[in-house]
Structures are given as structure tokens and as C-alpha cells.
Design goal:
Shape: globular
Number of helices: 5
Order of helices and strands: HHHHH
Structural class: mainly alpha
Helix content: over 70%
Number of strands: 0
Distance between the termini: 9 Å
Radius of gyration: 16 Å
Largest sheet: none
Length: 133
Amino acid sequence: PTLLTGLSFLLLAGLYVILYFAAGATVAWSSEAVRAFYGDGMDIDPGTLALLQLGRGAVWTALAAVLAATMRGRTLTVAALVGAAFAVLMAAPLLYPGALIPWPVRQGHLVELVLANFVFGAVAVLTLRRRVR
């Protein structure tokens, strides 16, 4: 049986969007520096942002499906490894100094991205591997 069906693909990509907004609202947006940097979100179009994140969720879902199908080992171990990999891949660029985003803002996004992407990667693997049992 296949790991990824059309429905599970859509649900997981949608889950990515939910986790992105939930982590943003509870972690990043709780930082005064983040809110100030984005002007309290007045110029952010939530619809456009949701579509962007849905596309990102589709890419991460496809990658999670490949990893869930090809990695060997216990499901919980694979889920933790995929979650950790997704967290590092998304958050690591925020560790490098940059002229565009000050450290307090990058720090808020760092925690947000680590949490959201770890949870997404782990849940995706658990969901996809569960389907084949």
C-alpha cells in the first residue's frame, strides 16, 4: 500500500499551515520585538500568507512521505529524526546574523520554526507509517 494518498497529502499540507499559524500566534507573536518589526501585522495579508504556507506544506509533506517510506527503523525513531531534520533545516538560517532582521526577531522566529517544524515532521511520519499497517 502507498503511504501518501491525495486526502492524506491535503490533510498534512493543511496541518502544516495550522501549525505555522499556531506557533506564530503563540510563540513569535508573543515577542514585542516581532510585533514591532512587522508593524503589528497591519501589512500582512493572511490569505496570501496561508497560500504560501500551503505550498510550503505540500513540499514538506512530499519530503516526509519519501523519508517515511525509505528510512529504516522504529517509527518513533524515524518520526523524531524527521522532525529534528525539518526543524534544523527551517531554523538554522536564522542563526546567522543578517542586516534585514535583527536578532530579537530572528530569535522569536527560531523558536517558532523549531517547534512547528519538529511537530509537523514527527506527526507526518507517524501518520504516514500508520497508514501502511
